[in-house]
Inverse folding.
């Protein structure tokens, strides 16, 4: 499961980057990279992305443990991601509304989303 989750984290990083890129375009000029980072972490416009960032952090922290990831843990991570980006009707509707709206705005985001969906299917 460690290999699958490691691949998933790479895909999630690309997805997260594409989301930030699109949201930054809608936000407008951000200044220096440090100012951009501060906006992403502190400004309400980007706050909805923290749910995905937090989940990515949890996966990374679990992968840093010496013990192998169990199938149950991997499935729990998958379920958490499905609640954010999956086609299920449950989950975080606020996140999903913003996420689904952005999917229509960038081909790079669509490609990153498709990649993550394929990686999730392997778990």
């Amino acid at each position: 499961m460690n290999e699958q989750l490691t691949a998933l984290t790479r895909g999630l990083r690309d997805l997260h980057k594409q989301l930030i890129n699109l949201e930054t375009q809608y936000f407008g000029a951000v200044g220096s990279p440090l100012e951009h980072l501060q906006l992403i972490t502190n400004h309400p416009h980007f706050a909805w992305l923290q749910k995905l960032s937090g989940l990515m952090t949890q996966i990374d922290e679990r992968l840093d443990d010496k013990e192998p990831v169990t199938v149950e843990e991997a499935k729990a991570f998958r379920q958490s991601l499905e609640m954010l980006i999956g086609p299920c009707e449950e989950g975080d509707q606020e996140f999903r509304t913003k996420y689904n709206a952005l999917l229509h705005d960038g081909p790079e985001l669509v490609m990153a989303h498709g990649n993550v969906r394929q990686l999730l299917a392997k778990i």
Remarks:
- DSSP finds six helices and no strands in the chain.
- Residues 2-121 form one domain.
- The helical segments are 2-27, 33-42, 50-64, 71-85, 93-103, 107-121.
- The longest helix spans residues 2-27.
